[in-house]
Amino acid sequence: MGNVMLLSNKVDIILEKAMYEEELTSDEIKYLLLLSEKDDIAKMFRVARFLRYKYFKNKIFYYGFLYFSTFCRNNCNFCLYRKSNQIVQRYRKDKKEILEISEQLIASGVHLIDFTMGEDPYYLLNDENLEELMNLFKEIKTKFNIPLMVSPGVVSEKILDNFKIAGVNWYACYQETHNKKLYQKLRINQSFNERMEKKFYAKKIGLLIEEGILVGVGETVDDIINSFENMKILDADQVRVMSFIPQRNTPMENWISPQRIWELKIIAVMRLLFPDRLIPASLDVDGFSGLKDRLAAGANVITSIIPPRKGLKGVSNSELDIDDGKRSTDFITPFLMKHNLCPANKEEYEAWLLKRKRPGDF
Ligand code: SF4
């Protein structure tokens, strides 16, 4: 990068600041997000990788994904599993299947399992079923001693307390946008504030938080900057961005998926702003073929690792690369090695979790 005094190019000056982890102004962040020259974008990605290396060396984390119930009481306009979508075949995995899939994921070397469901009334409105779910998490925790993430949508504080007691480490609940007007268009009849407040509550009781945004849904550059600010206020431990994929038989089915460079630039800027945090490269958007670019932009967690032939679905690209095994660690590890990266070991992931622990947590 050279000495800042010798830099005359605006992008170099901003990236130099980022490299030394000086706070960037909103205008500087905007400038980076709007970069259009290939060389400038490549420079930004290099700095993002430099910062990733500074905190994580060449280690990458694997997250197993278990979408155990695709039932939902909500009607988000962007989502395949919205309640009104009658053409989608839904499933709810039973205890035996969940245990078996968890075991398979753990044996494959994932560092964490993300248990995801829609806001399924079967669990959220029935104490007995919910208790069974908590017991299942406790059992998995005791048996396998693996970090767990839950992505159950907006749930009560009592349920969050129970997750914590069951040994869950993470609460993932993506706002998708922090522009309240846009939020209302995306998450129909759902409270913006309640969704945010649940994350603050979860943080308070010692759960780690993943916050995420969806792009290509009508957001502006300023909305992205606003989301970064919210992620900072939330002190999110993991920050994610995903490109919108139009879903059949939904109000947004005729929208066009955004150019991927938009997501990639946001990943890179996230790395500059949150250098020591986890940033996913999701297999759910473009499958295995989209992995290289996301890692090159500074991501350090590969999410949505799904065992083949278990009847499991992804979220945005519900079937892509699942049954042919391309979302498995066996397939991904050689690819990482080829690119001078490698999977972290269990201890390295747990050491990172410990670093994020605050007094009184866990
Ligand atoms: S995004 Fe989540 S809450 Fe919204 S409809 Fe889909 S599964 Fe339900």
What would the keywords be for this entry?
binds iron/sulfur cluster; 362 residues; TIM Barrel; single chain; 44% helix; 9 strands; alpha/beta
Descriptive notes:
Residues 58-284 form the Radical SAM core domain. This is Methylornithine synthase. InterPro entries: Aldolase_TIM, Elp3/MiaA/NifB-like_rSAM, HydE/PylB-like, Pyrrolys_PylB, rSAM, rSAM_sf. It is an enzyme of class 5 (isomerase). Its EC number is 5.4.99.58. The mean pLDDT is 94. The chain is built from 15 helices and 9 strands. The protein has 362 residues and is an alpha/beta fold. It has helices at 10-19, 26-33, 38-56, 95-107, 121-124, 127-144, 157-166, 180-186, 192-204, 221-234, 260-273, 283-286, 291-296, 329-338, 346-355, and strands at residues 59-69, 112-117, 148-151, 170-172, 208-215, 238-243, 280-282, 301-305, 342-343. Strands 1, 2, 3, 4, 5, 6, 7, 8 and 9 form a 9-stranded parallel beta sheet that branches. β3 (148-151), α7 (157-166) and β4 form a beta-alpha-beta unit. The longest helix is centred in the first third of the chain and has 19 residues, at 38-56. The chain has one domain (50-355): Alpha-Beta Barrel (TIM Barrel), CATH 3.20.20. α3 (38-56) crosses α11 and α4 (95-107) runs parallel beside α6 (127-144). The structure holds iron/sulfur cluster. Residues 72, 74, 76, 79, 81-82, 118-119, 153 line the site of iron/sulfur cluster.
